[in-house]
Amino acid sequence: MIVLGVDPGLSRTGYGVIEVKDREPSFLDCGFIATSTSLSFPLRLKNIYDTLLSLIDKFQPEVVAIEDTYIAKNAQIALKLGKAAGAAILAAVNKKKEIFSFTPLQIKQNVVGRGNASKEQVSFMVKQILGLKEEPPPDASDALAAALCYLSYHRYENIIEKAG
Hints:
Low-confidence stretches: none
Order of helices and strands: EEEHEHEHHH
Shape: globular
CATH topology: Nucleotidyltransferase, domain 5
Strand order of the largest sheet: 3-2-1-4-5
Distance between the termini: 23 Å
Radius of gyration: 15 Å
Largest sheet: 5 strands, mixed
CATH superfamily: Ribonuclease H-like superfamily/Ribonuclease H
CATH architecture: 2-Layer Sandwich
Number of helices: 5
Number of domains: 1
Mean pLDDT: 91
Structural class: alpha/beta
């Protein structure tokens, strides 16, 4: 199973791709989609959308795990983050991929074991879990953490199904 994790952002949307074989996650790719502030807002969203479509075509994930946007102090920022998340969701829907959204709290609890973990702690745990030589960039790390959170959720669902 291949999972694409996405950490939506207007300036930088993180992505991370992991594959599970024999119940062990392995790293395939990660990075971020940087959008230029010189582009109009709609073109920045299109850049996010188009790049995610290309990543979905390249890796063929079964699932896309997206970090929910958090509540920002600035309403304008929250709206823009929501629209960036919408571009990611639309890309996944257009490629007929199953979508799961997780709050930052859920992701941190699953990856670090604490909902109030710092970005550095999340990045460190992502590195450890996936056996990476170095920590991925922050946005990519959050996206990989979203993908790992899905795997944890999926394992839990399978346990309940078998017990049911």
